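Job type: complex structure
Entries:
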Amino acid sequence: MTSTAPIRALKIGIIGIGVGGSEMLPIMAAAAEFDLVAGADIVPQVREAFTAAYHAKAYATAEELCKDPEVEAVWISSPNRFHWEHTVLAAQHGKHIIVEKPMAISLKEGEAMIEAAAKYGVKLIPGHTPGFTPAVRAMRHIAHSGELGPLQAINITAYSDWMLRARTKEETDFSQGGGIPYRQGPHQVDAARVIGGGLVRSVRGSVGQWLPGRTMPGFYSAYLEFENGVPAILTHNGYGYFLTTEFMPYGANQQMLTTEAKREVRQRLGDGTWDDEAAKNRIRMGGDQAYYASPEFKKKDRWMPSDFGVAIITCERGDIRQSPNGLYVYGDDGLREQTLTYGRLMGPIEPRVELLELYEAVVEGKPVYHTGEWGMATLEVCLALIQSSQERREIKLSHQVPTHPDYDNAPILAKEFGDA
Amino acid sequence: MTSTAPIRALKIGIIGIGVGGSEMLPIMAAAAEFDLVAGADIVPQVREAFTAAYHAKAYATAEELCKDPEVEAVWISSPNRFHWEHTVLAAQHGKHIIVEKPMAISLKEGEAMIEAAAKYGVKLIPGHTPGFTPAVRAMRHIAHSGELGPLQAINITAYSDWMLRARTKEETDFSQGGGIPYRQGPHQVDAARVIGGGLVRSVRGSVGQWLPGRTMPGFYSAYLEFENGVPAILTHNGYGYFLTTEFMPYGANQQMLTTEAKREVRQRLGDGTWDDEAAKNRIRMGGDQAYYASPEFKKKDRWMPSDFGVAIITCERGDIRQSPNGLYVYGDDGLREQTLTYGRLMGPIEPRVELLELYEAVVEGKPVYHTGEWGMATLEVCLALIQSSQERREIKLSHQVPTHPDYDNAPILAKEFGDA
């Protein structure tokens, strides 16, 4: 926003103030483009903490929030199986929508969401994926700028402790969209599709689940091939032993949890004494470890691999990967660091670009780059990975869409790339 | 060899004293189990240097060497397209055989080699692959020991400057076995098969070639799935921009060549002024940069990723990867370093286990662990990767064999694992 005129703030509500969703609250509260006016959650502790912290209305159900005429847009971070239902509900009430990854847990749900948004004339953005972020957009920008020649290959590798974090019961249910393929797959897939142009031809991969007491998959490895022949290798192992953080020279064998905490979680998951719900409530808003709600969370002076992992983008005359302050760009003259204003992938200290995308689409009539169809194509890849693992064969895709033609003209990278 | 009796030395000859083959000479010369008695090479400079350095007979052709009755065994490191022919020739003359990777460039050739060895009653070991090395054997040992539970996944990633090193004309010919898939593929495939048990079910992958002036593929990424469902992701990018060395905290963006040397090679390959043959002759035996022949080469105090790359082996309760002095073993109590007596993957300062395997098989009647059939199964995976790339589909395999049942009883790891 370069205008000095008063900003027309969009009134937004959040549906599902979970650990992930609450990450958005400080951003919404701080953004001049938004007024955070309401939130809905089934947990009383969370509603109380939300009202106290943000002086906004708290509802016990999504339906009540959607009926609130003051709310113009919603951020949907309810459990995955409700994404389609809450999206359709919000659309029916004329609310514009950002829905977190995974957009849905079946293509049928995704189609219903797209249809509802079209029918009721609201914007729909599947969000909370790295395809919005400066790092991934800059990778795409450089890979398509010609500086390093044509894009040739993508490799994204994550080893995290994601599987050892506290979960609700439904979060650990694969049939409800629990586990690494549904919840982390969209991160790597979305980024690969943004960088690779969107059109994945086929997927071959494997999903793994092996931690006793954790009833959801915690691993996948996948080979994707784009229509133009570019391959992408995507891997996420969330069991928390080796960690991708170790691949940075200043990184150690620790991500979110200490070795001691991980050992305790594993042991108690195994012997049945781990109280997931209680642990989850502690890290929620209003809990005594509600770290996500704190703007200090993830405040680091250098980039560290997150759950997204380490991405290496190969072009004909060079490679690109994340660096302490942005990206390393490797070319014939060695490597240079491309500093990015917002070098981190996601987090409270970085404006969330899906919010800006929604704002500009609703208020300024700009395009939605990450459309419902785009999100459904990412979902299709994740579902194909699961199917490939189950049927032990390559899965061809049929719902892929290309990156928006004006994608690189979004203003997010204007500071770093003057022509963006 | 724990006996104090005089060792019965096996008289060995080398066919093809190229840059790779000459790496073996100091080892053969130093090993009590071998007498290096002859070598064959078409390059006069090499024959002269070989005779001077090792006081051994030098022949201009493989046939002459094979007719030498003193030679009992041969190490075949001739160009890849001659591997089958020289193997059959050596077998016909009753010589035991180690043949470098790739064993051959077609399954038909591989079958002819196996048949010849059987017909003439000689031992045949496809060698020069990391499956022999302490690091890979120890990974397998730990992964199958039960310490970390069942093996679940394999990931081997290499970014090297392999494509920028000097080559003969035939080495850059894909149809003669040139390029990364034939020449580097066997390293990762062999290691994955040793660790994973040998039986690969299918391969899906992509082969890439994009450096102007380098007429052979320099990239692959592949998804393998073993019969038991364990997936393996294998990647090698030899174009020399990002390098896997950077993943070690003490590593930098340099492998074999400096940034300046790489830039010159790329530029001169592109404008046609690069004289590959002349550059190759300089690094051969007798050339002024014959670094491979020096025992000092690769003498490092800490492990660094070689062309083989970084391997991460995932088990149910932990991961394993290479470390400065051996392996990092990650488990519930964090990570420990398993020191290995020979921590490096391959190189002159490390006894080459394929030599010991041949010696013990010929002289002591012990089994050949890496049989012709084993080597052909590794070759089949590499060929399937190439086919998968060309036909853009998953390729099922039909020539796979399991790891030798006594594999873990080979004495190589006895010092580290008392029960080995």
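Summary: Chain B has two domains: 10-130+349-371, 132-348+376-413. The radius of gyration of chain B is 20 Å.
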